[in-house]
Specification:
Layout lengths: L1 E2 L3 H12 L9 E2 L2 H11 L3 E5 L7 H12 L5 E6 L5 H6 L4 E4 L4 H27 L4 E6 L2 E6 L3 E6 L4 E5 L5 E4 L3 H7 L5 E5 L2 E4 L5 E2 L3 E4 L2 E4 L2 H12 L3
Helix pairs in contact: 2-3
């Protein structure tokens, strides 16, 4: 999908899309409000999004899309005539950022990046559907890394990624996924979310207090929101 109110840009961008075999243009919009409704109903995998538009700029539109659609949000490639929007673009998880007029080489580099990301996610979903629940695959840049559940100590969540701390390495695995997504994958009874930012492996816990969990020298907070279900788990052993 293309969202751009400038016909002088829209036409050559449509030509680039039409001449790329693995791209299929669903629709194009000049009005960002109409585009938002179409994105939610058509669920495109990739959106070329202008930044300067009347009523609602592309950065704000991308933020709304992410808030409403979550992990189902499309990949976004911004198109603009101004370099200084790059930082704002990546803050809303833009896949890439193209300067107008869009050059063929830059366009192809961006769409191949999108293609690789979409294919990786598709493969990850297939693996998730068929896993025997003793391991998961985590997307790390352009690779899928196999992680055995028995090796996971705890998971720390950030805005755009997670850190999975494991017993068989000295550090952690950084993956571009969400806590909500991992919480769904780890519904095995062996893991519990104890904080907005933490999921823990229950059998790896060394000790607990009312508001903390200890793994060796590491203390994990237990927030008020998750304290009651965690207390019920602990009470089973007393």
């Amino acid at each position: 999908m293309i969202v751009d109110d400038d016909e002088m840009v829209l036409f050559p961008l449509r030509i680039l899309v039409d001449n790329t075999p693995f791209l299929n243009l669903l629709s194009f919009y000049a009005d960002p409000a109409e585009a938002l409704l179409a994105i939610e109903s058509q669920n495109p995998q990739l959106v070329f999004l202008d930044i300067h538009m009347p009523g609602l700029n592309g950065i704000e539109l991308a933020r709304i899309i992410n808030e409403r659609m979550g992990t189902d949000a499309p990949r976004i490639i911004f198109t603009t005539g101004f370099k200084h929007f790059a930082i704002d673009a990546y803050k809303v998880n833009a896949l890439d950022y193209l300067l107008k007029p869009v050059e063929h080489d830059a366009f192809m580099k961006a769409v191949y990046k999108a293609k690789a990301d979409i294919e990786n996610n598709r493969q990850l979903q297939i693996l998730a559907d068929y896993t025997e629940h003793d391991f998961i695959f985590l997307r790390v840049e352009y690779e899928l890394v196999k992680v055995y559940l028995k090796n996971i100590l705890y998971i720390e969540g950030f805005k755009d990624y997670v850190k999975v701390y494991v017993t068989n390495t000295d550090g952690y695995i950084k993956s571009l996924t969400t806590m909500k997504n991992l919480e769904e994958k780890l519904k095995t009874g062996a893991f519990m979310r104890v904080h907005r930012s933490f999921i823990v492996s229950l059998d790896k816990i060394d000790s607990v207090t009312r508001s903390t969990i200890r793994f060796g020298k590491i203390l994990i907070p237990v927030s008020e929101q998750y304290r009651e279900p965690f207390k019920k788990f602990i009470d089973k052993w007393f």
